[in-house]
Amino acid sequence: MASFPKEHFSKFDNAAITESDKAHYMHAYHCFDEHRADGSLNVAAGEGAYIYDAEGNKYLDAVGGMWCTNIGLGRDEMADTIAEQVRNCAYSNPFADMANVTAIELSKKLAELAPGDLNHVFLTTGGSTAVDTAYRMIQYYQNSRGKHQKKHIISRVNAYHGSTYVSMSIGGKKSDHPEEFDYISDTIHHISSPGYYRAPEGMTEADFLESLVKEFEDKILELGADNVAAFFAEPIMGSGGVIVPPEGYHYRMWQICQKYDLLYVSDEVVTSFGRLGKFFASKDRFNIQPDIITTAKGLTSGYMPLGACILSDKIWDVIAEEGKGRCFVHGFTYSGHPVACAAALKNIEIIERENILSHVEEVGTYFMEQLKTLSDLPIVGEVRGSHFMACVEFVASQETKALFPEELNIGGIVHEHAQKRGLIVRPTVHLNIMSPSLILTHDQVDEIVSTLRLSIADTVEDLEKAGHM
User: Fold this and answer.
1) Phi, psi of 178 (to 5 degrees)
2) What's the predicted TM-score (pTM) here?
3) CATH topology of domain 6-71+355-465
């Protein structure tokens, strides 16, 4: 693994990089006014759970890149595997009667790891395209069954499923649906987020669960069961606030899907490949057998872009029925890219060889325990999550759970204080979200929590000075 002394960064001119960034580079989720004023944190290097900016400043990345640097950055073993694959076969046509050996090997491995009868793999370029593929797969499946009206999709408020036209429409975050974009609104519907912290006052968790299940069934009946094709759900909501559902929620929703002939799509783009201590969380954590699993991110630990849509024998047996002459007219130039697939296979090998899943069980539990100690701070409303997937929600009142005005951007203030101390957390208005590398040590957990405590305390002081507390 590389090591980066300060002199390594003398080759970078951060001022010039910032100028070029502002002039030419349009970011994902580009906030025009903020970027014009403040520029970006220009990352130039990374090793393990740490990143370095172009001036050589070191940060503990508690966001794990974008929920994805599971085995850590800078592994020579991964670099060697990628280089070897480039030399051996850098690209192969993935369409129709062409395939590459590495993509076939990875598909076989994913079928072995996925629960139950999820034996068929369509490789994509990332999570958004995996969800997009699942959506098209659902249409193809229902049409192949002769159920041409069965096309409506049900998702949840605050869900995140990607940033293509379809996947963003399936997502349910208000902030992801600005008026400047258009969305599919006639056949995609959103029911309540399963976050108990924001349940009606006085409602028990059991009653809250019953209300969610009833709402789902009522929505199906309102639309007509013959018109509803599938339910999309993240096992634990990610960027929507790390929402952990009530005990039994997914199983009850799965039962409703069985009752009304809906496909259950488990979006494991974030939760798979160890983030919750399992390769896949659907069955092992939430006791459900999905019809489709979408995955990406930790599939390669961010070393290469890759995603997958994994489907059941039930779906395959319908769409691939012998004698029908069907063709699934869908694909990407970089589907099953051999270099990305080689990275994924090596990534999985490392996770298995180094017992990273067991490590997550131990250190991830410690991470959540230590984060919960922040609850004594006056603006911390709830600390929630599981293993290496966590969120701190900030409130103006712990008693009433009232929020600060959005324009204050409390999560952003905490994030700025943390970054000055060498810690990266993800700010989302009232939240700080964390999804660190799965190789995190106990000492690094302590570093995150102690730095976050100081940063929240600084934020409280800022709020008091400004008269907001």
Assistant:
1) -65, 160
2) 0.97
3) Aspartate Aminotransferase, domain 1 (3.90.1150)
